[in-house]
Amino acid sequence: MNIPKVFYLAAFALFGLVFMTLPSYSQVTETYCSTDVPLPVPPTGTGGFGTAPTLSDLVVPASAIEGGEVTKVVVKMYITHTFDSDLEISLDSPIATNVEISTDNGGAGDDYGSTCGTDDMDPDSVFDDDAGTAVTDGAAPFVGSFSPEGLLRDFNGEDQEGTWTLIVGDDATGDSGTLNCWCLDITTSEPLETEGIFPAVSNNYNSMTASGASPGGNVAFLWSFMYGSTTIAGPVCPGLEVGLSPVNILAIETADVDGMAEAIFFVPHWAIVLYTQIVDIDTCRAGEVIENVHSNN
Length: 297
Hints:
Elements: E1 27-33, E2 39-41, E3 54-60, E4 69-81, E5 87-92, E6 98-103, E7 125-127, E8 144-146, E9 162-170, E10 177-189, E11 193-202, E12 205-211, E13 218-224, E14 227-231, E15 241-244, E16 248-254, E17 261-266, E18 273-280, E19 285-286, E20 290-293
Parallel strand pairs: 7-8
Antiparallel strand pairs: 1-10, 2-10, 3-9, 4-7, 4-10, 5-6, 5-9, 11-12, 12-17, 13-16, 13-18, 14-15, 18-19, 18-20
């Protein structure tokens, strides 16, 4: 085992952190495609003219990973339409989390994508949070990868199983189209978890293990003397809600290839309770808050 590094808090120089390698875990990406296609996209779909948007379902079966949760979603589609800026496209998860994909983009151009690809599983209009071009900066027919208007990471931490729904509306008269095909690339992993060993291991040291982080990704270790809901302002995953208030960042480290680590906290004798939490920065998932009830040894 390598000699551990120790980090100290500026406000409380009595704290430290040690990282050690733990056993491995897996991360899996699967492609699922809707069989609820093709469907017409009539004009005046969502503009208040009385015609409902087109709803297409995609059912994800039981996960291959027991207890797996979503860490990334990529949306792929092929829609033919004669006036792209009429379209409003969004995606609902099985628990009704809605993410805006594209609204009124593409001007008078035609289509999203050009093909459904091999076996209707590879549409070439792709929406990915990590894409270098925003859909608002793209042009019809939107072939390639684009970041959506909303954040697909909003699905992170959810269960992939169940019915996902692509919502395609037309908010103007005159033009119409067809939803030809659409697919999801869903990456899942075991849940992001923390476990504590309390009371103190020895000499005021408490231990916390973390598992389920992105292999090779960045992990933030958070701490606070108080429990409470807080929305992070930055620099770690701005907008993410965590269970500590106020939030203090003890360290940001690169996870090992197995996505696991251990943290050992040196707690001063006067600290009765210390709350800790980890955040997978790559997927903006927060683990459960751990209440560390301290006893002096």
